[in-house]
Specification:
37% strand, 5-stranded antiparallel β-sheet, endopeptidase fold (from Nostoc punctiforme), mainly beta
Length: 268
């Protein structure tokens, strides 16, 4: 499918849907700063079919929520090491208008003088360089910021998130980009043979049916943080996830992968 144009999200959160209908299932979300290619325009439904640059996910957005950019600016974004926000929410001034954005948003601020931004921003929240890889303690601190976020299919925000979206966002903020689905994440990183070989920050995968996968992030002290109704912390052992409140096993452990391979840095 030919690329018709380019865009970048300039709203806090935009749903990306499976079909052009307003009620179509949500497959993922755009956060502020996510950029994408336009693949098809449905004028009748006022929808645009896009492909997100970071993870290749395709889906439909409302044309009224599209912000077009040039190909030069799109390619500029691809190369720039912008900042990614680490506050649950923070405020920015965009075109002299205040806007609240969410954790994991990308703001076009760079130390490089090679890039001339087409837009002007004022931002003073907590952030780190998008490409900087961080260690487990940072991963844990980011993951805990999502605690009690409700489970929402296709969600990627502290106000609604799914299991694979949670892993993707935490790892992305820490400097380890990953796929959008658990199936994609299972093919990334480095294989860890057993739970005994794992270390905090590893990603654990679980069977929830014949083909369905569940995913979460291993913490210290035999705990896992994952999405099951909400973002929660439970116990993990060789059998799987043991809910701390009901003492019932909910997911059968199947695989483990290691994304965090570097010691990381404490600088922001």
């Amino acid at each position: 499918m030919d690329v018709l144009g380019y865009g970048v999200c300039r709203l806090a959160l935009v749903p990306v849907r499976l079909g052009p209908e307003a009620h179509a299932p949500q497959v993922t979300q755009l956060l502020f700063g996510d950029h994408y290619e336009m693949l098809h325009v449905d004028d009748k439904c006022n929808r645009i079919y896009i492909r997100i640059y970071m993870d290749g996910v395709e889906g439909w957005i409302d044309a009224a929520q599209h912000h077009g950019i040039t190909q030069d600016y799109f390619e500029q974004i691809n190369l720039a090491n912008f900042k990614i926000t680490t506050d649950l929410t923070c405020g920015i001034l965009y075109k002299k208008s205040p806007l609240t954005i969410l954790i994991g948003s990308i703001v076009p601020i760079s130390n490089s003088e090679l890039f001339k931004m087409e837009e002007q921003f004022a931002f003073n929240g907590e952030s780190k360089s998008l490409g900087q890889k961080r260690e487990f303690e940072f991963v844990k601190s980011i993951a805990r910021k999502y605690l009690n976020a409700p489970e929402v299919a296709g969600g990627k925000s502290p106000f609604g998130i799914d299991a694979s979206g949670f892993v993707q966002m935490v790892m992305k903020i820490a400097g380890y980009p990953s796929g959008r689905t658990a199936r994609q994440q299972l093919s990334e990183g480095h294989k860890v043979d057993t739970l005994a070989d794992s270390r905090p920050g590893d990603v654990a995968f679980f069977k929830t049916g014949k083909s369905a996968l569940h995913v979460g992030i291993v913490l210290d002290e035999q705990r896992i943080i994952h999405v099951d109704g909400k973002v929660r912390i439970d116990h993990i052992n060789d059998e799987g996830i043991l809910r701390l409140d009901t003492k019932v096993y909910t997911h059968q452990l199947s695989d483990m992968r290691r994304f965090i391979t570097a010691a990381g840095s404490s600088a922001v």
